[in-house]
Specification:
This is TetR family transcriptional regulator. By secondary structure, the protein is mainly α. It is elongated, with a radius of gyration of 18 Å. It has helices at residues 8-23, 30-37, 41-47, 51-56, 62-72, 79-97, 101-109, 112-135, 140-163, 170-185.
Length: 187
């Protein structure tokens, strides 16, 4: 048997998601995850710091990716249209990388600990987007407001996309959420 299994990370993730769904996040252990995956705890530790990391691994890249997408947006665009373009750009990238998104979202919704971790992640993304919008010329207060609205659009689009990932692309969900918001703002 080879010492390195190229599928180990995905096997561990799949086992964890199954156990979280079956028994609840709080009741599943790393030992159970590794047993279900047919791997060792040492292998688990090679890929994940703890069982939360199964759900959040890679999320540390999201703030930079979102900020970079804002920076890459057409320089002629005002801040909010640039942010929407960035959400589409970054969203397409992350939508392609996130496997088991609906299952992950349901597990996070079931645990206050995971919800807090998700809020912390989104706060970091918001701060990075604020900085990128400031670099594009937005005032501090405008950048904060636009970033918060943009992240709300991103969350709404992501939620809707996870409910029907085969039915539509992520960019369409971002555009739909932004259009819906604009319709609510128009008297």
């Amino acid at each position: 048997m080879p010492r390195w299994d190229p599928e180990a990370k995905e096997r561990l993730r799949a086992a964890a998601l199954e156990l979280f769904a079956e028994h609840g996040y709080e009741n599943a252990t790393v030992t159970q995850i590794t047993e279900r995956a047919g791997l060792t705890r040492r292998t688990f530790s090679r890929y994940f710091a703890d069982k939360r990391d199964v759900l959040f691994a890679g999320s540390e890249r999201l703030p930079d990716a979102m900020a970079d997408a804002v920076r890459r947006a057409d320089s002629a665009l005002p801040p909010f249209p640039a942010l929407l373009a960035a959400l589409v750009d970054a969203g397409d990238l992350f939508a392609g990388l996130v496997s088991h998104a609906a299952q992950r979202r349901a597990i996070i919704a079931s645990s206050p600990e995971l919800q807090e971790r998700e809020r912390t992640k989104l706060a970091a993304v918001t701060a990075a987007v604020v900085e990128a919008l400031r670099e594009r010329g937005a005032t501090e207060s405008s950048a904060k407001m636009l970033a918060q609205v943009g992240i709300a659009i991103f969350q709404t689009a992501f939620e809707r996309w996870t409910e029907q990932p085969e039915g539509t692309d992520f960019a369409a969900q971002v555009r739909e959420a932004a259009t819906e918001l604009a319709a609510h703002l128009t008297p």
